[in-house]
Each structure stands twice: as structure tokens, then as C-alpha cells.
Amino acid sequence: MTQGKTPVTPAVRLLRAEKVAFTEHLYAYEEKGGTAVSSRELGVDEHSVIKTLIMEDDRKNPMIVLMHGDRQVSTKELARVIGVRTISPSSPDTAQKQSGYQVGGTSPFGTRRAMPVYMEATILELPTIYINGGKRGFLVGLDPQEVVRILRPTLVRVSI
């Protein structure tokens, strides 16, 4: 499935430094294609492709939200769970500034700025997840327990 040379991104460097076993998957990126395209290109269930979303609360504090590709985040429920008034997606410029990654290539690993991470709890039920490796058209496959080990996310149930 992998064609071409694997990019060495901050995410890949961090995964290697943490001795995480991961597979590398390059695919033809499509603008605004999202997880539907990556799951189709990789031949995996969209539920196991995890979106890395940069969001912010009403005070503009950024956060990372990890969600199944085939689900949406209930920002209302997430705000309630973490005790803030509102949560909204960051603008592409803000997301890039906070994460250091281009939108469409945002990885939760190796971000420019440390941010709290919220992960949909049901992601842990999957044996393998596919998550962005820090570049458009590049996912890494790994055990979701590794995400917990490295990022120490707060587990939430906020999918719709």
C-alpha cells in the first residue's frame, strides 16, 4: 500500500523516539476528502481512521480532539464534560500555528505547542488505528494504547 518515500515529520521522530511500533501508509491526498478518502485509499474501515482536530474553548485555549473518522464531535457535550462554556473548531490558520502542521496533515504527535488531548473513549476498542503522521496523504497505523501512553489523553464520550 505504501508508495514513495516515507516523510520524516516531527510525529515520526517522536514515535521512533518513543519506540512505538507503527506502519506507514502513503496515499493520494484529496483536498477536503477527509477520512472517507484515506479509508478508501488504505482499504480500511473509516471508523478506524482517527481525525486529529484542533479546537478551542471560549477563552481561545487550544486543544486536540481525537475522533473516529465516521463520527462528529458534539462540541456542546465536550464543553460540558470539560467545564467550559463553548468549544469550536479553530480556524485553519490558528490550527496550523498551534500544531505546526498543515490542515489535512495534522498529527497529534510532535505538535509545536503542547495542548490538552481529548480522545473518544471507544477508539480504545479498536485493535489498530490509522492517524495522521504529520503530512497530507500520510497516515500511521498503531495500537491505540500507544496514543494513551504517549499523549495521556483525557478519555471522553462525545461522538455523534
What descriptors fit this protein?
single chain, 160 residues, alpha/beta, YbaK protein, eight-stranded mixed sheet, 5 helices, 8 strands
CATH C-level category: Alpha Beta
Distance between the termini: 31 Å
Q: Please report the total strand number as a whole number.
A: 8
Question: Oligomeric state of the chains?
Answer: single chain
Helix and strand run: HEHEEHEHEEEHE
SS-derived structural category: alpha/beta
Rg from alpha-carbon coordinates: 15 Å
Query: Globular, elongated, flat, extended or rod-shaped: what is the shape?
Result: globular
Mean pLDDT figure = 96
Unreliable runs: none
CATH architecture: Alpha-Beta Complex
Task: Give an account of the 3D structure.
The protein has 160 residues and is α/β, with parallel strands linked by helices. The chain has one domain: YbaK/aminoacyl-tRNA synthetase-associated domain (YbaK protein, Alpha-Beta Complex). The chain has helices at residues 10-17, 34-42, 75-82, 92-99, 144-151, and strands spanning 23-26, 49-57, 62-68, 87-89, 117-120, 129-135, 138-142, 154-156. Strands 1, 2, 3, 4, 5, 6, 7 and 8 form an 8-stranded mixed beta sheet that branches. The longest helix is centred in the first third of the chain and has 9 residues, at 34-42. The chain is globular. The mean pLDDT is 96.
